[in-house]
Design brief:
Low-confidence stretches: none
GO molecular function: copper ion binding
Family: Belongs to the COX11/CtaG family.
Helix content: 25-40%
Shape: elongated
Distance between the termini: 63 Å
Structural class: alpha+beta
InterPro entries: CtaG/Cox11_dom_sf (IPR023471), Cyt_c_oxidase_assmbl_CtaG (IPR007533)
Largest sheet: 5 strands, mixed
CATH architecture of the largest domain: Sandwich
Mean pLDDT: 83
Protein name: Cytochrome c oxidase assembly protein CtaG
Keywords: Copper, Membrane, Signal-anchor, Transmembrane, Transmembrane helix
Strand content: 35-45%
CATH class of the largest domain: Mainly Beta
């Protein structure tokens, strides 16, 4: 009888050890996710810097008054809502901070969760278009009939290739699928 009890205790100790190792590995993986996420986002060129870091970057740039870049603003809404920029275009000098406002109105009779995704044309302009403040950084909940106005504060990097004279900033605003909002 003692040998059977000893075998069960030994098996329980082995299981406890394995579970402890798995728990430690899971904790280590969870702890490593933040730097891994940051590295992946930086490698893909996704906005990952905080607003303070972006403002510091912008403060250290030099304004190139010898060049003028035409920035065109486009807005696409995927759903029953209104979404548009306050102006369709603006001229900026590389290194100069600029702001454009976008308006949004939920025309639905229900609340919705939504987010905007930016895109740039020409493609190489995306790496040189630094947004300091943007509604595209967050997901928003808008109530039925609610209107919002959001700024996009940006700087065109002076390292933008000399052959690029026009940049188109386009946003697609879409409803976040699968969101269960209160009051629905």
């Amino acid at each position: 009888m003692k040998s059977w009890v000893a075998k069960v205790r030994h098996a329980n100790r082995q299981l406890l050890f394995k579970l402890a190792v798995v728990s430690l590995l899971m904790f280590g993986f969870g702890y490593a996710l933040v730097p891994m996420y940051r590295a992946i986002c930086e490698a893909l060129g996704i906005n990952v810097l905080s607003l303070a870091e972006r403002k510091e970057q912008a403060k250290n740039t030099q304004v190139d008054t010898s060049r003028t870049i035409l920035v065109e603003f486009d807005a696409n809404a995927r759903g029953p809502w209104d979404f548009k920029p306050a102006i369709s275009q603006m001229k900026v000098h590389p290194g100069e901070m600029a702001t454009v406002m976008y308006t949004f109105r939920n025309r639905q009779e229900r609340a919705m969760a939504a987010q905007a995704i930016p895109s740039y044309a020409p493609k190489q302009a995306g790496a040189h278009f630094n947004k300091l403040e943007c509604f595209c950084f967050n997901e928003y909940t808008l109530q039925a009939g609610e209107s919002k106005e959001w700024p996009v504060v940006f700087v065109v990097d002076p390292k933008l290739p000399k052959d690029v004279h026009t940049i188109t900033l386009s946003y697609t605003f879409f409803e976040v699928p699968g969101k269960k909002l209160a009051g629905l």
